[in-house]
């Protein structure tokens, strides 16, 4: 055994010495050759400032091609990138996908969480959130729906890719951590990009924020020199209002027994991220919906607070949108496998349904705004 080990050691030493001599010969050969080309990774000083590259054009997936997972079918032409869009910043549960508990389980492998660790895999999901890029003839507004616990990570990945900078408003669906846990991270915007950010929130959820984010609501408790998010809270009611020339209609839903949450309709898009039941009066607000984004937690059944896939499909058949994208999926929802099953519904029932994924950008056509809708109460910053 000792002799074998010594033989291995000698062999390794010889191999290393051979590699070192080879590298030395290559370096000597290079230095003796013409210096017209610098070596790889060599620092080159320039007397001019290079022109910065423009941000890459957004990856847009037309609704008609959502049934294909090939990114080559995505449209990235400049002309199409100038219209209104919704960008999915997150499409997962509060804990996110992959789960740490799955990746550290020595006795069982979770297929979806394992896939989610791969770069670019559509099973990687952060807290459910979208950004509405509302484009008019005079201006473009970025309106965020929810800022959850993973908002910073979502913004870090998608804001540079889509050329996003300002946040013109934030709409809050409810006051759980996966919807408001990232409000503190907005300080980067109000410290370095813009003076403040308007927050549109229901009274019941604002009362929760007065406890969970008391230092953002009442900035008088903040020590001088400390930096916190500068937020302007606007109380909305369950009736239409206008944000930056965009008409927004709240869609009241139940997110578990006795817990009220909001979806939002803007133009022909209805967005409901957290729901276990839709009241009858809300269905009327979704009439003639073009695109429905709907909660669908798991493949087999609903929970007390979220639609499962079977119940979500029942709702789609009742609402009858032209197209549907499910969101808020847990780790039992494999992106490719579920989409294969949903594709069959298009063949059998004509239902155009797919799972959304983080980073998906969908062109939209919001309705023209109406100045009569402005039902919210602006709260003065407490000093």
Keyphrases for this structure?
single chain, 383 residues, alpha/beta, 8-stranded mixed sheet, 7-stranded mixed sheet, 15 strands, disordered N terminus, RibonucZ/Hydroxyglut_hydro, Metallo-hydrolase/oxidoreductase superfamily protein
Describe what you observe in this structure:
The protein has 383 residues and is an alpha/beta fold. The chain is built from eleven helices and 15 strands. The chain has helices spanning 2-32, 100-103, 111-116, 151-161, 177-180, 187-192, 203-212, 214-217, 280-285, 309-319, 335-348; strands spanning 85-90, 129-135, 140-145, 169-171, 197-202, 231-236, 241-243, 246-254, 260-266, 269-272, 291-295, 323-327, 353-355, 361-363, 376-378. The strands form two sheets. An eight-stranded mixed β-sheet has the order 14-1-2-3-4-5-6-15. Strand 11, helix 10 (309-319) and strand 12 form a beta-alpha-beta unit. It is globular. It starts with a helix and ends in a 5-residue tail after the last strand. The model is unreliable at 1-80 and 368-376 (pLDDT under 50).
Shape: globular
**Mean residue pLDDT:** 82
Which structural class fits the helix and strand makeup? alpha/beta
The amount of helix comes to 25-40%
Q: Give the SSE string.
A: HEHHEEHEHHEHHEEEEEHEHEHEEE
Radius of gyration: 26 Å
Determine the number of helices (DSSP H or I, runs of at least 4 residues): 11
Beta content? 15-25%
| Number of beta strands | 15
Unreliable runs: 1-80, 368-376
**Biggest sheet record:** 8 strands, mixed
In spatial order, strands of the major sheet run 14-1-2-3-4-5-6-15
Distance between the termini: 78 Å
């Amino acid at each position: 055994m000792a002799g074998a080990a010594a033989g291995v050691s000698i062999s390794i030493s010889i191999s290393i010495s051979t590699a070192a001599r080879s590298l030395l010969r290559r370096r000597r050969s290079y230095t003796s050759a013409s210096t017209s080309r610098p070596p790889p990774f060599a620092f080159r000083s320039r007397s001019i400032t290079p022109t910065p590259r423009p941000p890459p054009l957004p990856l847009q997936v037309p609704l008609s091609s959502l049934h294909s997972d090939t990114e080559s079918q995505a449209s990235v032409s400049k002309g199409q990138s100038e219209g209104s869009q919704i960008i999915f910043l997150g499409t997962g549960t509060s804990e996110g996908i992959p789960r740490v508990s799955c990746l550290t389980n020595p006795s069982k492998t979770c297929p979806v969480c394992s896939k989610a660790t791969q770069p670019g895999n559509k099973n990687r999901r952060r807290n459910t959130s979208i950004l509405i890029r509302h484009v008019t003839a005079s201006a473009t507004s970025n309106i965020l729906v929810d800022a959850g616990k993973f908002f910073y990570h979502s913004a870090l990945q998608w804001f540079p890719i889509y050329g996003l900078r300002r946040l013109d408003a934030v709409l809050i669906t409810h006051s759980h951590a996966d919807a408001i846990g990232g409000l503190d991270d907005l300080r980067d915007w109000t410290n370095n990009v813009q003076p403040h950010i308007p927050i549109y929130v229901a009274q019941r959820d604002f009362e929760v924020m007065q406890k969970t984010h008391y230092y953002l609501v009442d900035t008088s408790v903040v020590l001088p020199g400390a930096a916190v998010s500068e937020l302007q809270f606007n109380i909305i009611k369950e009736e239409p209002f206008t944000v930056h020339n965009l008409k927004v209609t709240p869609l009241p839903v139940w997110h578990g027994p006795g817990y009220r949450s909001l979806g939002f309709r803007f133009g022909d898009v209805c967005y409901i991220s957290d729901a276990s039941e839709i009241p009858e009066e809300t269905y009327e607000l979704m009439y003639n919906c073009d695109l429905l984004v709907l909660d669908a937690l798991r493949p087999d059944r609903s929970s007390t607070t979220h639609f499962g896939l079977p119940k979500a499909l029942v709702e789609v058949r009742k609402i009858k949108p032209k197209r549907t994208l499910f969101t808020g999926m847990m780790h039992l929802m494999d992106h490719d496998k579920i989409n294969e099953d949903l594709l069959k519904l298009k063949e059998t029932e004509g239902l155009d349904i797919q799972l959304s994924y983080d980073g998906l950008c969908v062109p939209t056509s919001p309705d023209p705004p109406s100045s009569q809708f402005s039902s919210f109460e602006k709260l003065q910053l407490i000093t």
